[in-house]
Amino acid sequence: MSVDMQKEPDARAGQEGRPGEPTVLAESTWGVVALCVAAGAVVGELVRLLAGWFVTLRWAPFKGPAELLDSAPEPWVTIGAVTVGALLGLFAALILLHESLAVRVSGSHVELTIRDESEEFARDKIRLVFPDGKQLVLLGHHSEELAREDCGLPKRRLAEAFTEHGYPWADADPYAAEFRRWVPDTPGLPEGANALFKAREKALKKQDDAEDARELRKELARLGVVVREKDKRQYWRLPSQ
Predict the structure, then answer these.
(1) Cα torsion for 143, 144, 147, 153, to the nearest 10°?
(2) How far is Cα 131 from Cα 138, in angstroms, rounded to an integer?
(3) Are residues 10 and 29 in the same domain?
(4) What is the pLDDT of residues 151-210, one digit of tens each?
(5) Interatomic CA distance for residues 58 and 134, integer angstroms
(6) CB under 8 Å to 20, separation ≥6 — which residues?
(7) Can you list the pairs that 224-232 forms with residues at least 24 positions away whose Cβ atoms lie under 8 Å?
(8) d(C-alpha 77, C-alpha 73), whole Å
(9) How many domains does the chain have?
(10) Mean of all residue pLDDT scores within the chain
């Protein structure tokens, strides 16, 4: 997907401004919409073509709807299939844009916006910024986690934006070796952390509970526990003293 990287005030224009001005990185609205709408239209046409093939089979699932679609006159059936596919693609694009992360970097603070919610982090609170897989991570001065958000933005563009404004950047997590896998009733965790881990484990197993898992990770961060997951398994470490 294309990405907008530009200076304020226009957050979506993709134009370079003067050095020192805030830099905004976000998914290109028109790029995402165009890609999803085109993909949806192609899928709609494929469905129409498959309907014609399905009706030639002696038995096939959804043969009734396929026969109904195949019996519709041309060119209306093609126009209808492509239009419905494009509309579904537009709906998917709106969801993707709503769920995508926008990053605003300035000399004084970093602002992360996702799902119409924004968080600001003052520059003097940030010790390090780095990508961890498909996530963007901000650490504080005691290696505590300030933010960890899913991020589809190019790592090179992120590195350029942060280093341009003087933020320390790493290409990987320097504390990766300190993480240990969580198991029920793990000793050494702050009071209440194991209960949050158990609730988060259940949320990770449900595809529609991603937001709940995100909120529980923030609760663990408030207790001083840094959390990451891989293949729905949870790993943890404690900040340095």
Answers:
(1) 20
(2) 9
(3) yes
(4) 989 999 999 999 999 999 999 999 999 999 999 999 999 999 999 999 999 999 886 678
(5) 46
(6) 107
(7) 224/144, 224/190, 225/189, 225/190, 225/193, 226/143, 226/144, 226/145, 226/175, 226/179, 227/145, 227/148, 227/197, 227/200, 228/132, 228/135, 228/148, 228/179, 229/204, 232/201, 232/204, 232/205
(8) 6
(9) 3
(10) 82
124: which strand partners?
none
Residues 141, 58, single domain; the answer is no
Q: Are 52 and 128 members of one domain?
A: no
Which 8-state DSSP code applies to residue 2? -
Per the CB < 8 A criterion, the answer to whether 200 and 44 are in contact is no
Residue with tokens 């969801």: 95
Residues 95 and 183 reside in one and the same domain:
no
The CATH number that applies at residue 125 is: 3.30.720
Query: In this structure, which amino acid lies at residue 118?
Result: S
- Boundary-marking domain end, from 155, 172, 189: 172
**Which tens digits make up the pLDDT trace of 18-32?**
456 899 998 866 776
A 10 A CB-CB count for 19 gives 9
Record the tokens describing residue 63, joined without a space: 């043969």
